[in-house]
Design goal:
The structure holds two protein chains of two kinds.
Chain A (H helix, E strand, L loop, with lengths): L1 E10 L2 E11 L4 E5 L6 H8 L7 E6 L2 E2 L10 E4 L11 H11 L4 H9 L2 H4 L15 H11 L7 E5 L7 H18 L2 E6 L2 H7 L2 E6 L2 E7 L4 H19 L1
Parallel strand pairs in A: 3-8, 3-9, 6-7, 7-8
Antiparallel strand pairs in A: 1-2, 1-4, 4-5, 9-10
Helix pairs in contact in A: 2-3
Chain B lengths: L1 H14 L1 H5 L1 H32 L5 H23 L17 H13 L2 H4 L2 H13 L4 H29 L7 H15 L5 H14 L5 H21 L28 H13 L1 H15 L8 H4 L5 H17 L10 H6 L4 H22 L8 H26 L21 H25 L1 H17 L1 H14 L1 H8 L4
Helix pairs in contact in B: 3-4, 3-7, 4-8, 4-10, 5-11, 7-8, 8-9, 8-10, 8-11, 12-13, 12-17, 13-15, 15-17, 15-18, 15-19, 17-18, 17-21, 18-19, 18-20, 18-21, 19-20
The chains are: A alpha/beta, B mainly alpha.
Chain lengths: 240, 492
């Protein structure tokens, strides 16, 4: 589905991302972990053609993302709060996104009604602008908006941050269902190793822009990841 | 403590990207400041001779004091719209071990150093010098001068009290209008002769320096009240937290007539109506509409036919210019989302285009009453409207692709230069001066009708070429896509 080849991005001579080859098959739930500055958001931004790659490219469904815009109809994403339009209410925002994705109000209502649990009664019908919602509720609205219009690829940057524990558990269930039952390719990044191992079939560890681990999730994965990140702090301490 | 505060202030000012990025803008602001200083200096030195000439049989010092009432009113109004108490910047200080009262004193003390308080000095001091030179008793005038400075500070703090109350109201101008209106009304209907009372009071003080304690007392009272207001408000949950407003949704289903650009048009209309910065462009439309009234009623301008298209462009295109110059920066807050969404750039731009054209049409219809001043004006406005639709709309869209400055929609608009760059100034030239120049030359060479015809033809040419031009403009936007995303995601 998504194929990355010789991709690199550098700013003023500093390389922040360098991925030789990475293929994500259709319907896979894919997790990206790494410390701050590892290049997770950079990779997602490249995937959405928000920044231009220095070398190489990403193809999504055999469309080169920085050459054609045809990947947009089947790709949706929520990277950060700047994806929200602050002066709209959540409903208006959902309808707007729906309009862009060829869904009428009834379609959007049908979809959002499935997330009543997830919204916990704090999003719909509150007559509040998105800019006035709390960070967590903004995130909820943004994530659900990314599910509108039956996308085939969903990209979520740090979806678990700022959410309360109940919502985190619900979100994990939603993401699992999407990948398993509907064959949606899901790309998630997170700092929280436990969440990623729960949700993703495959986990890639980025460090300073390089892929250093590529794991199929199994019961031992969490231990392995924890060991890896613990050792890298030790290595850092030794260096210092 | 004060040392830290001043240090912070200094860094805030010089490290703001605002200062570093837009040197040109700062030069302009300095220029404005100098301009006002010169005007006030002129007033200070010129007032005495002027008063002597206008009121030869009266004491100019008494006359000047009689006018103080109006000055106080105007000063109060100016400050209300332009001066804000800089409360937000202390938010990070609240969790630090600093006494709440110290922070409040600092904020209030800082406001006393505002430019608005120094500006009147440029008039008060020269006027005092002139008076002393004219033979008035130095002790009397110096007391007067001192009292005036106190009054300036009283206005300064009184304004913040008004603002504190207006912040809670839906109609934020109301408290100001009530205060100014009541004072003026009391005076006008001779209920309370405030005008002469203020004059007399100042004369009394200057003759009897001990009375200066009264304005000092008023100042202390204003300060104390501000202190109380601020101290009670200085919690994260009350005033420092931005207000939550309830949504009043309007029915925008009529935009469906515009087909595939409807979602964007609805978005733009909500954008305009729900944000402080954009809302003001609606009010500016009203100002633009009456702009012609500054010129047409005066016989002097009635014969300056070459000026008509310029006024026409302005009257019919005020919204186009005001809104259009910041495309696509209006959407800068969520530009990343738009760029990763399933949209066609051309649709997005066309929605803005249609909105601007509609505004030109509406403004032209509203400006039809100008025909009262002569049919030539109506024709000139019509030609200007066509020119706006055909040429200016495309020019301004094209200029927008050079916009690299983010706009924070929640900032108030008056004297807000955020998002303004060189582009806005450069684009203004072809927009207004070019059609005026073309018309003026042709009007001079071949006459009025030919000049109008040329403007209309240029406009029609633009309308005919609309599809082609939009393609060019869209390409230009696509080419600068990455640069815009990068620029808009930086905080200014």
């Amino acid at each position: 589905m998504i194929h990355t080849k010789d991709l690199s991005k550098s700013y003023n001579g500093t390389t922040v991302l360098n991925v030789e080859e990475l293929s994500i098959p259709k319907g896979q739930s894919f997790g990206l972990v790494g410390n701050n500055g590892a290049g997770k958001t950079t990779y997602f931004s490249l995937l959405l053609d928000l920044i231009k790659p220095s070398t190489g490219n990403i193809t999504s469904n055999s469309i080169v993302v920085d050459e054609s815009e045809d990947w947009k109809p089947f790709t949706s994403s929520f990277i950060d709060e700047s994806f929200l339009i602050g002066y709209l209410t959540p409903e208006e925002y959902f309808y707007f996104i729906g309009d862009l994705r060829g869904q009428n109000k009834a379609d959007v209502d049908a979809l959002t009604s499935k997330f009543e649990d997830f919204f916990n009664g704090e999003i719909i019908g509150k007559k509040k602008y998105l800019r006035d919602l709390s960070k967590g509720n903004q995130k909820k609205a943004g994530i659900v908006a990314a599910l509108i219009g039956n996308p085939e690829v969903i990209i979520l940057d740090e979806p678990f941050a700022n959410l309360d524990p109940t919502t985190q558990i619900r979100l994990k269930q939603i993401l699992k269902d999407l990948a398993e039952k509907q064959g949606v390719t899901i790309l998630v990044s997170s700092h929280d190793l436990m969440h990623v191992t729960d949700v993703c079939e495959r986990i890639v560890v980025l460090e300073k822009g390089n892929v250093i681990k590529d794991l199929e999730t199994n019961p031992a994965t969490l231990k392995e990841l924890e060991a890896h990140f613990a050792s890298s702090t030790m290595a850092n301490q030794e260096e210092e | 403590m004060i040392k830290h505060f001043i240090n912070l202030e200094w860094k805030q000012y010089f490290r703001s990207s605002y200062w570093q990025k837009s040197l040109g803008l700062n030069i302009l602001l300095v220029f404005f400041a100098l301009y006002f200083i010169v005007i006030f200096l002129g007033l200070g030195f010129g007032l005495l001779p002027i008063l002597k000439k206008l009121f030869p049989e009266q004491d100019p010092f008494v006359v000047a004091n009689g006018f103080l009432f109006f000055w106080i009113m105007v000063d109060l109004m100016m400050r209300f719209f332009l001066q804000k108490l800089p409360v937000m910047s202390v938010k990070p200080l609240l969790t630090l071990p600093i006494k709440r009262s110290t922070v409040v004193n600092y904020v209030l003390g800082k406001s006393a150093l505002s430019f608005f308080n120094f500006l009147p000095l440029f008039a008060i001091i020269p006027f005092s010098i002139m008076l002393i030179a004219d033979g008035y008793a130095a002790s009397q005038i110096l007391t007067w001068m001192f009292t005036m400075i106190i009054i300036v500070l009283i206005i300064n703090f009184f304004n913040f009290i008004i603002e504190a109350f207006s912040a809670e109201k839906e109609l934020s101008f109301l408290p100001l209008i009530v205060v100014v209106g009541t004072l003026y009304g009391l005076d006008y209907f001779n209920v309370l002769p405030i005008k002469s009372a203020i004059g007399d009071a100042l004369l009394a003080i200057s003759n009897n320096p001990i009375l200066v304690l009264i304005p000092l007392g008023v100042l202390a009272l204003c300060y104390w009240y501000n202190f109380k207001l601020l101290r009670d408000k200085l919690f994260l949950d009350s005033s420092l937290k931005s207000k939550v407003t309830e949504v009043k949704a309007a029915d925008l289903s009529w935009t469906r007539h515009f087909g595939d650009i409807a979602p964007f048009m609805q978005l733009d209309l909500k954008l305009i109506w729900r944000n402080k910065r954009t809302k003001s462009s609606v009010f500016i439309m009203v100002i633009g509409l009456v702009y012609g009234l500054f010129f047409y009623p005066q016989p002097m301008y009635r014969d300056m036919v070459w000026l008509f298209p310029f006024i026409g462009i302005f009257v019919t295109g005020i919204f186009l210019i005001n809104f259009g110059q910041f495309i696509p920066a209006w959407d800068s807050g969520y530009y990343k989302m738009l760029m990763s969404q399933n949209i066609k750039y051309e649709q997005y731009l066309r929605s803005k285009f249609v909105l601007m054209i509609l505004s030109v049409g509406i403004m032209f219809v509203l400006s039809i009453p100008y025909v009262y001043f002569g049919w030539k004006i109506l024709i000139a406005h019509f030609a200007a409207a066509i020119y706006n639709i055909g040429v200016n709309s495309h020019v301004i869209l094209f200029g927008g692709s050079f916009n690299r400055k983010k706009i924070d929609l929640n900032q108030r608009a008056a004297f807000n230069y955020q998002g303004t760059g060189a582009v806005q100034w450069i684009i203004g030239l072809p927009l207004m001066l070019l059609p005026m120049g073309i018309f003026a030359i042709i009007n001079w060479l071949f006459g009025f009708e030919t000049g109008i015809a040329v403007l209309i033809l240029m406009g029609i040419a633009g309308i005919v070429l609309h599809k082609k031009l939009m393609k060019l403009i869209t390409k230009r936007y696509l080419d600068s896509k990455y640069k815009m995303i990068d620029a808009f995601s930086q905080d200014s």
